[in-house]
Amino acid sequence: MTKTLLSFGHGYSARALTRLLSDDWRVIGTTRSEEKAAALMAEGTELRIWPGADLIPALNAATHVLISAGPSEAGDPVLNDLRAEIETRRDQFEWVGYLSTTGVYGDHQGNWVDETTPLTPSTKRGQMRVEAEAAWQSLNLPLHIFRLAGIYGPGRGPFAKVRNGTARRIIKKGQVFSRIHVADIAQILAASIARPNPGAIYNLCDNDPAPPEDVIAHAAELLNLPIPPAQDFETADMTPMARSFYAESKKVRNDRIKDELSVELIYPDYRAGLRALLAAETGGV
Fold first, then answer.
1. Taking 70 as the threshold, does the pLDDT of residue 284 lie above it?
2. What is the pLDDT of residues 131-180, one digit of tens each?
3. Does residue 113 belong to any structural domain of this protein?
4. What's the CATH number where 48 sits?
5. Distance CA 200, CA 223 (A)
6. Where in the sequence is the domain holding 190, given as residue range(s)?
7. What keywords are annotated for this sequence in UniProt (predicted)?
8. Do 52 and 31 touch, CB atoms closer than 8 A?
9. pLDDT in tens, 101-129
10. Which residues on neighbouring strands pair with residue 251, listed in sequence order?
């Protein structure tokens, strides 16, 4: 029996999931960009330019829904446009997934957080995600929330900046980030689809929260290039957006994806992930 995934904001992580789904899946994705639509259709995804397109036929066909589209100050774009239509179809959906962020936890000064940690975001982006999560939770859907750490993978690694000399090792005492390879995001989403648990919340991150400067240094070592010089966070020339990422420091636990979904991470730490990225770029390292 054909299953249909309706993917709102069909981007980097959703595309990785699509590549794991079997041929008997129908995938309908939305994008804002005409330019992106052609590339996505080449992957076998049916594309709708949205906002704009009539999504009622897609909603009528959907057995599974994935929401990657992020909120704005106006709220969640999917619910703003289609809340009533989604609510009336709750019984036809086998699984609904919402991609959120570990930014909902806020700053914990380098200490550990898990899915039960109170949500105390310290940025506007984090607060909007908290509000969007709550809005989706209010709908009585078979909802699964996935809180993603920093995403990397093909096309999103540090090697290009290290090679061209623009990589920076920003040093802020006690700063640690969690991260996740896009291939692991995809396998976790697929595992959840195979084993639905409505109401579940999962942190998506690897086993090794680490200072960001360590990741840059390791990338340089893999490339046999000089390690970029350290720059103090307080005096570094950074955009407000870049600086805001350093407003929070925490280590994120991932036990639930292993215990409930039996996930074995493909890339359990950034070292394994970077080695694989470089090997894919160079044909072996």
1. no
2. 999 999 999 999 999 999 999 999 999 999 999 999 999 999 999 999 99
3. yes
4. 3.40.50.720
5. 40
6. 3-152+179-205+251-267
7. NAD
8. no
9. 999 999 999 999 999 999 999 999 999 99
10. 112
Backbone angles phi, psi at 19, to 5 degrees: -65, -20
Residue 67 lies in a domain: yes
Cut 0.70: pTM above it: yes
34 is a domain residue: yes
Residue 242 exposure: Cα atoms within 13 Å on the Cβ side: 10
Structure tokens at 126: 């984090």
Residue 158: closest CA among 277, 16, 251, 240 = 277
Q: Please give the biggest Cα pair distance in the chain.
A: 59
pLDDT digits (tens, 9 = 90+) for 194-214: 999 999 999 999 999 999 999
Contact by Cβ (8 Å): 145, 208: no
